[in-house]
Amino acid sequence: MKTIWYLALKDLKILFRDRLGTFWFFGFPLLIALFFGSIFSTSRSSAASLKLAVIDEDRSFESQQFLEVLGQVPSLQLKSLPLDQAQDQVRRGELTAYLRLPKGFGQQVGFLSSNPPRLELGLDPSRRAEEGLLQGVLLESATKFVQDQLTDPNLLKKRFDQVRADLLASKDIDPNQKRMVELIFDSLNKAMTIPDSAEGMGNLSFIPVRIESRAVYNEKVLPPSSYDITFPQAVIWGLLSVVTSFAIGLVVERRKGTLLRLRLAPLGLSQILSSKGLACFLMTMLISLVILLFGRLVFSIRIADPLQWVVAVISTSLCFTGIMMLLSTLGNSEQAVSTIGWSVLMPLSMIGGGMIPLFFMPKWMLTVSHISPIKWSITALEGAMWRGMTWQELALPCGLLIGIGVVAFSLGVVMLKRKMN
Question: What CATH class has 50-152+194-215?
Fold first, then answer.
């Protein structure tokens, strides 16, 4: 029994000797707990706002009042834009959706209206999860708006004054009729009272507005299917596996002396590391090609611009090749690099939208997501496949991916040289 205890203590000492690897055994679970705890404990007021563009074509008193009610919803961030700009920003994924209030909204909205106004809700196809939430918020705000119109004497008075002013300004009414209109509205203003039971009118069954949803996409491209939306994420997960495998392989060669023996040959360290990077780059390109060809043959996914797709895949592959080189230097054993690698890549995937929709995240985490190459990789691939991005729009994500890859690869080379000297 004593022998067994000594052998067990020996294994534990070997395990704890790799301090960096041991940290991830204990520290990473705590980080995961804090990460998800921050998300699920976030109150509604601190959650990331849904960015909604509004297009008020009616420009009436009622439409302005409705937008004021809608602007009080904590989960919404309103932005007034022309229709073409709103559609363009939703297509690029910069906004969750747009809401268009048609002409005649003010005349049609109300409890007694037999023809409620139809609001157009244009959605980003990749964010269908928010559609039900947005429709619920819009219906709730419209109901509150109508109730306010009926229960607030000040709003009622404004409505009466507006109608009165319109009638008196009409050229089709003679002076005698205008005096009669003034008398009628003066009597209405004096007689107008709001009973205490008016608060119960919210229980009446009615439809304040009708919401017509539509997907916003480039008209030159067919509407994206669910597989068009999910296959970029599949490519990313394939690349994560490649990166981890190559990083572990590089550690194995360093630990077993393979890299040292290669350096004794007439080869420079830059040549050896370049070959490793080239192999990883080619493998990531192959993974991307195989996954998307499978999706094309089996699920008929589309690539709007093949040349843009090639540029997006090359940029993504360069980025992950650089990340591979950097990860390979963060541990001295296969176990440590594997643990650290997935412990770094998984949070990047989480905050980049690879696992959790961005709208679930609190505001500060949504800001942090900009540092994740996963986010920019998905943006680049979606832009080339179905978002119909222009070359100018694609330049930002591709440029960031290439920049991250170059910086990460350079840091990895510097750190690896120090370890081998």
Answer: alpha beta
